[in-house]
Each structure stands twice: as C-alpha cells, then as structure tokens.
Amino acid sequence: METVSFDKVALGEGFWADVIDKNAEISLPNVYRCFEETGRFRAVRCEKQETPPHIFYDSDVAKWLEAAAYMQKRRYSAEIAAIVADTVDAICASQRPEGYFNSFYQVYAPERIFKERTEHELYCAGHLIEAAVALASCGQGEKLLAAMKRYADYICERFYEKRDAGFTTCGHPEIELALVRLYEYTKQEKYLSLAKFFLDERGQREEEIYPWADRKYDQSHLPVREQNEAVGHAVRALYLYIAMADVGRIEGDGALLSAARALFADIVGKKMYLTGGTGSSYLGERFTVAYHLPNEYSYTETCSAIALALFCDRLAKAENRAVYHEIFERVLYNNILAGESENGKGFFYTNPLESHACMTEYVRGLKEKPYQPIIERVEVFECSCCPPNLVRFFGELGNYIYGTEKGVLYVNQYISSSVCAEGLRAEVQTEMPYRGTVRVRAEGKGTLALRIPAWQVSIACKVNGGFVKPREKDGYLYFDVDGETLVEAEFEMKPRFVYANENVWENSGRKAVEYGPFVLCAESCDNGKNLRNLEIPSLEGALVETVGGLKVTVAAKRLTTGAALYSYEPPERENVTLRLIPYYAWANRGENDMQVWFL
C-alpha cells in the first residue's frame, strides 16, 4: 500500500486540526525555548563549553528541526523559519571536512570518534538525516540535506567500505530507518545498501554493550531474520523493527518481513498495554516477559508509543491489513495523546495506567529515590527525547490517513480532511472521535474503502441518501464511485467493557471501559480516593457528554470495610456515580490518583 503524503492532504476542522495547531503555535516554540535554555541549540555550534553537552543533544535538535519542517507547511512562522535557518547554518559550518558531525565527539573526544558503540553517534546521525530529508521534502531548503548526504557518505566509507570503525552496528537503532528515508528521497542505492548492511550485521557477533545490559537489551542477541520475540529497550527495538519492515518491503525480502510480522504479533498479543503503550519495565525501559503489564509502574515511554505507530505504518505499506491501522488508532488516541498536556507545554516521558498521589509524595521525600512515575507533565527532561518526537509526529499526522493500492483509495484513519488520489477527489467529514459519523463526498471514478473500526457496535451505510449494504472484505467496506457520490457511514459508538487476558496477572478479573477509540480512566478529583475499590456492574444507562471534552458517567459500587486492617466481614457495596474521562486527558488538574482497570 502506498500512503498519501501529508503535503497532499488538506486537514479540515475538528479534533486533530486543533491538536496540530496547538503544537504549531505553542508546543514547537516552547520546546525550542526549553532546549535553548538547557544548551541543546548551543551545543550544535560546536563551541567548547566548560560543561560538555549530553552525547545525544544533537538528536533533540534534529527532531525539533524535523517538527518545524512539518509545522511550517501548515502554519508558517517567520520566527521559526529564522531559528531553522540559523541552526542549519551552525551545523553546516561546524561539520568536519570529511563530512562528520557530532557536537560531542568532534569537540570533546575526537580521538574516540566511531569507537564507542553505546554512545549514540549513529543514532544522532540518523535523526539529523531525517531532519534533512524533512526540510528538503517540505520545500525549506536542501542545505542540511547536502551536509547529511556527505555525513552518510562518510559513514558508508568507514563502516561499509573500509570497515575500520571500532564497532559495526549502533547500540541504539535509528540510523537504519533514516538511511531508508534518505534512499527513498534521493533514490541513491548506496543508502539502502548501507541500511541493509547494518541490519544484516546485527546479531552476527558480540559487540560492545553496557556492563549492566544483556545482548537482548539492544536486540543484538540474534540475527534480525531470526528474531520473533520483542525484547530489550522498547524504543531501540521498535526503531529496528521499522527498518526491518522498510527494507523487507523495498527489497522483497520475505524473511525480513516474516520476522517483522512475528515481532508485531508478539507485541500486540502479549506485551502491549490497552493504551497502546509498550515497554513495561523502567529497568532498561524494556519489554519483559509475556503478559507482564503492571499498571502503576508501567514505563510505556511516549517515544515507544510513537515508534509502535510508525511500525504499524511500515507494515501496512508492505501488506495492507486493517489490524495495523487499528493498533495505530489505539496508540494514537491513548498513549501518544497522553504524552502532551492540555496546554501544549508539558510532557510525559512515561505513561502509567494507575497512579497514587500519596506514593509520589512519599518518594519525593526520600534521599535515595526508587522509580516513581511523575503524575504531572513537565516542560523539559534531562533526557528530553519525547517532547520534540511528539511535535514532529503530530506535524506529519496527515501521512497516516489515506492509502492507495490497486486502484482503491483507502480511508485508514477518520480525520476530517480532503485528498486527490486514485482518480478520486474525496472530502472526509467526521465527528470522530466523539461520534461515529463519517461522510465522504467523492468525485471521479474509482473505488473507496472505509476501514471498519474495531470498537464499532453496529454499522449503517448510505450512498446518495439510500441505505446500502457495501462489500465487506478484510476489515474494510468498499464503495464504487462514479461521478459525484456521497457515502455515509454510521459506526455506532457507545461505552464498552474490555477485559484483559487471564494471564495478565495485574488485571485478571478486572475490566476497563472504552468509548470509541478512547480508553477511559477515573481521577480522584472527580471520584474521591480509593479508586481501586470501585466496581462497575454494568454500562446500561451510561451518560455520554462531549461538550468541552468527553465525559462518561456510570453507576458504580464502592467497596467499603470497617476500620480494621483485616476483617472476617465482607465489604459492603455503596452506590456511587463514577465519572470517566479519556486516558489521554488525565493529569491536567493537579496531582491526582488515576485508575484504568476496575472491578
């Protein structure tokens, strides 16, 4: 399936247009301010400072540049354009004659260039390459692209031709998928060959790794075509899997694609949270064992959620299946959206599914602090990869709405927008994510396919005002378009229970509530403390409100006991009214308890 590029998609008004505009107007400049204050933008000038910058500050700046490229296409800002130009000039001026650029190594440790596998050199290079491709493809100049092609050529010379670098594969995958992007933009085969080389060499021999880590941590435990279980650091893993799907598709490498599909199945079948989050342990930010999905101490990094969405996109390009877009939708509306605050300034690095404010307060007072997720978003982190990653992802969201294949225009995500493709001009108007109403005004001659949402309860369809029963195949509804055609689909949306597999020991016997694409949660500011003792017997009579954001009110029972710590008397059940909100919207009203899974 070919995806329709975001620059060919015009977003209409609605939920996602508001999110993207907020990111363009507020998040992008605010992330820049935070990065400027913390020295990230100073670092790429390669002027020696008393305190050396972090080894991957370049990647933070690169992701911001990529975000700016996309956002400038939608909402131009002369101020942002000036920052982009100044930053690109600084990078190009600091680049070494042979093409190398890394603000840490060339200034503070030139003797160790390409000798330390764990220290993110090629990871930073990959993000700079992605930024360069984004700026060029968005019509904002090819100066950085020219510089990064020289850098990629130098990497190719050292790692592929001479093979005289101190390591073969990077400890943090990213360069692989970036080289594929560079190949797809430039059509220069050497970049694809280099990406394939890095994939082929991974897991073929023991290479340097952190003293405390095992080889599964950075996915170097097996050759990539033999990997079928998602292991190790979740972001590293998913960036690698994206490249595997990319190269497998372009090269027609069935073994690579088969491995990528097996890894996807392992994630969504055994290791993914209901919110689409991945990576269940803060120890190594990693995948652990099947069905280990703790709630309060879940890691579920925002970057790994974005990476899962991108992995879904790459798999769909290789073989369009509705399930890839279904999982993309799940992670988009829940874990990804939760990463950013309502005002566009604050961010979560991790995204727990349960919080207890008293534990946060307790840990805050300890001298030696164990891992405890924060329960209010902050503007910048010491490791601040997630904020610019979110902004760049939202900036190119239009990439993931439509796809084309064999004369069919597919609508994969329901976002108000318009597009011209496969002989059709189509305008999608939808009330999602609050109501399941979709109207598509199409002109031309061809076939239109609408994805059937996994959460729908029933479907009613009309063509030009008359009820029809469209062809249904592989999770899509198909409509023939000849001339001006109005296709209407009503996907019934109502609160539904969802239950965890019995092997998920944290949630066995409990249930969560979904409404359309949203996972819902309860906060103590609406419902009082002790959320974990709430029972929802039924969703009959649930009240759904969508003005000012989604709120769902249900009848519930609160289990109460006497004052004794333990008792022989069973708890009583007190009738209460429970207010639920979308998971992504929690933690915008001060420190709160929060709960997703209920009795």
Summarize the structure.
With 599 residues, the chain is an alpha+beta fold. Helix content is 37%, strand content 19%. The protein contains 16 helices and 23 strands.
Characterization of this structure:
This protein is an alpha+beta fold and 599 residues long. The chain has four domains: 38-208, no CATH class; 224-398, no CATH class; 402-491, Immunoglobulin-like (Sandwich); 495-595, no CATH class. Helices cover 37% and strands 19% of the residues. Helix 10 runs parallel beside helix 12 (302-318). The longest helix is centred in the N-terminal third of the chain and has 23 residues, at 15-37. The chain is globular. The mean pLDDT is 96.
Question: Could you name the key traits of this structure?
Answer:
single chain, 599 residues, alpha+beta, Immunoglobulin-like, 4 domains, 12-stranded mixed sheet, 9-stranded antiparallel sheet, 23 strands, 19% strand
Figure out the total of helices: 16
- Structural class call reads alpha+beta
Total strands: the figure is 23
> What is the helix fraction of residues, given as a range?
25-40%
- What is the residue-averaged pLDDT? 96
Distance between the termini: 42 Å
How many domains is the backbone divided into?
Answer: 4
Shape: globular
Please compute the radius of gyration using only Cα atoms. 24 Å
**Largest β sheet strand count, sense and barrel closure:** 12 strands, mixed
The unreliable regions are none
Strand composition percent: 15-25%
